[in-house]
Amino acid sequence: NFAEPREQEVSGATVIARALLAQDVKYMFGIVGIPVTEIALAAQELGIRYIGMRNEQAACYAASAIGYLTGRPGVCLVVSGPGLIHALGGMANANINCWPLIVIGGSCERNQEAMGAFQEFPQVSNSNILTKFSAIPINIPTSFFNEIEEAVRNSIYGRPGACYVDIPADFVTRQVDVSSVKFKECCLPPPISMADTSAVNMAASVIRNAKQPLLIIGKGAAYAHAEESIQKLVEQCNLPFLPTPMGKGVVPDNHPNCVGAARSRALKYADVIVLFGARLNWMLHFGLPPRYHPHVKFIQVDICAEELGNNVRPAVTLLGNINAVTEQLLEQFDKTPWQYPTETKWWKALKEKMESNEAISKELASKKSLPMNYYTVFYHIQEQLPRDCFIVSEGANTMDIGRTVLQNYFPRHRLDAGTFGIMGVGLGFAIAAALVAKDRNPKQRVICVEGDSAFGFSGMEVETICRYNLPIILLVVNNNGIYQGINTDSWKEMLKFHDATTRVPPVCLLPNAHYEQVMTAFGGKGYFVQTPEDLQKSLRQTLANTTEPSLINIMIEPQSTRKAQEFHWLTRSNM
Ligand code: ADP
Ligand code: MG
């Protein structure tokens, strides 16, 4: 079941490609070169889609997004030494986000090891700390099937993560006798684990006795496809919920029980919080005062036992698959129905706060002054966004403010800087989302909302987008800088008498940069917009055109910021 009829010998590259196909790998991203070009060719020949990128880092981000969106790992294929080093950022990001990913790195020939071989680098040991599993096959190429199966299984079982397989150059081209290759079939889907029944009983009773309950829905719930069960729990028990950034859309943002717009208040005064696949890390302020009530009872639902009890002492821990555990909770509430009353002080306090927060944003959005501010820009974008679009976003203010205005209605439709707070992921993520959309629903759009600084990290992937003709809409929210920039006049004034390196504030980027021309350079559509009317018009045009990539460069007030906050949502050490 491995070889073709009458086949006697195949190359190591072919064995690797067949092993990947056997594990149901559908997408491979990378940059070819010695010694992996043959692997990409062999994979493509088998029908695995190969997407050549411009930097391994972006390739690795794209592959990891495939893992999150589809539940099966994408592959990132890189050359030895520097190729692998560029991919390390993507491996770290996947692992920290708990997303499945397979990185395959070519490495130097074994008989040249420790001799100063071309691009020689300790690849396995360097990948070790960024992955769940990293290995160099020993009996290659005969054992490739085993190693690839083990890597794929490790990437999706338990808490998902990144895995690395090293392939020495001499194994790629070597011809092997097909009879010596040990076939291994596709690993089974991850087993579903359920929580201990007494813990489920206890959790249900803590929820029933809550005065000010809150559900927090994280990207673990999105990954677990728990949308149906969680929405049912929200509605059956009438519980307020708030999503984390990538938990948005598990239950639609416009659901009447969503209290995202009263986030700080909900966190601070809740007396019982149920965490569905969200860690109490920096994004949730570690679960500690002053952001939370000192006596809040946490109920943690997670697939990773080691996560339970991090930073707080939970009232109840529910170890298991989020969807299965939510079904267990629903059973309890089916047996003895219970609903949190609507006429409570808690609901009233949350609703009041939501209304006042939304009013402040709307007022900022309605400001007519030019250049536009963030809120004006995002309100106009939100007005036209198709409900089922993928929203990819990164940048500091762009991402933080954009998240509060741009709505998600479907699970796994938002990709952003995530747990690692990483920048440069946007274009890779957008490419992955566009490929997934192309296969599932070609009408679905991918909107990538980038700060101008964030866009710069992987800007050359615009060529990749145009090469594969992916109808991605890139929106660059351009404030001439990181956090804040300066306008053209002050820029000219500043440089009249001084050298740029001694005067240009480190946060500044070139004012008035025409990023849309990066898109037109490769044949896509570019728009430069300065007014709300231009923005509306260019959005309408680009959304009507479903076949062409485009970039709208949106000039905003360089000093525009977010509205005053009681606490910063994402506390950065440098803000
Ligand atoms: P967020 O950034 O949305 O807060 P995190 O990445 O911090 O989310 O948390 C996601 C959590 O979900 C991780 O602790 C991970 O172990 C958990 N997780 C991932 N998949 C599953 C699953 N299928 N069932 C239960 N928990 C899961
Ligand atoms: Mg900026």
From TrEMBL:
Keywords: Fatty acid metabolism, Lipid metabolism, Lyase, Magnesium, Membrane, Metal-binding, Peroxisome, Phosphoprotein, Thiamine pyrophosphate, Transmembrane, Transmembrane helix. It comes from the Eukaryota. It is found in: Peroxisome. It catalyses: 2-hydroxy-3-methylhexadecanoyl-CoA = 2-methylpentadecanal + formyl-CoA; a 2-hydroxy-3-methyl fatty acyl-CoA = a 2-methyl-branched fatty aldehyde + formyl-CoA; 2-hydroxyoctadecanoyl-CoA = heptadecanal + formyl-CoA; an (R)-2-hydroxy-long-chain-fatty acyl-CoA = a long-chain fatty aldehyde + formyl-CoA. The keyword Heme does not apply. The chain crosses the membrane at residues 417-437. One of its GO terms (cellular component) is peroxisome. Pathway: Lipid metabolism; fatty acid metabolism. Residues 201-329 form the Thiamine pyrophosphate enzyme central domain. Its cofactor is thiamine diphosphate; Mg(2+). Residues 399-554 form the Thiamine pyrophosphate enzyme TPP-binding domain. Residues 11-123 form the Thiamine pyrophosphate enzyme N-terminal TPP-binding domain. The keyword Magnesium applies. Its main location: other. Belongs to the TPP enzyme family. Homotetramer. This is 2-hydroxyacyl-CoA lyase 1. It comes from Dipodomys ordii (Ord's kangaroo rat). The gene is Hacl1.
